Amino acid sequence: MPMPALPPKNYKTPFASMIGHHVAIRVPDFEASKKWFVEKLDWRVLHEWPYGDLQLAYVGPATDDTFFVEILGGGDPQPKVIYDDVDASLVHAGYHHFCLTVDSVDDTVAELRRRGVTIIGEPFELESISRRLAFFSDPWGNLIELAQVIA
């Protein structure tokens, strides 16, 4: 079942200029997180800056200059729940994951496994949105979704 047609865009709203830019993740090890994105996902470190006692950086996909992950490091963050099952992760309120579109979920998961990345469950199809999906996590339990459009 394909996704329904999107409603028309509303250019009359005072928020018409809003578009997505980045999502932020809090990590206990700033340098290790940057290294993980670069070595495991082939992402680029785009910009770094301090904020109080924190260190921040934008990292972005190899070929995308429109979506970033902001890494928040430093200080003494509280530990978070680490999931090994997507369904178990759905019981808590709050931020859950961000999604990356790929040409092939299966090929991407195979390469992530080869690079030692933690895969959270096996790829599956969700017909209601015409997508093949998979989830993986960084070393600190931040979930990332992969999505492939299926016919």
UniProtKB/TrEMBL annotation:
Signal peptide: none annotated. Keywords: Lyase, Metal-binding. Residues 19-149 form the VOC domain. InterPro entries: Glyas_Bleomycin-R_OHBP_Dase, Glyas_Fos-R_dOase_dom, MMCE/EMCE_epimerase, VOC_core. It holds the Pfam family Glyoxalase. One of its GO terms (molecular function) is metal ion binding. PROSITE patterns: VOC. One of its GO terms (biological process) is L-methylmalonyl-CoA metabolic process. This is Lactoylglutathione lyase/glyoxylase I family protein. It comes from Micromonospora palomenae.
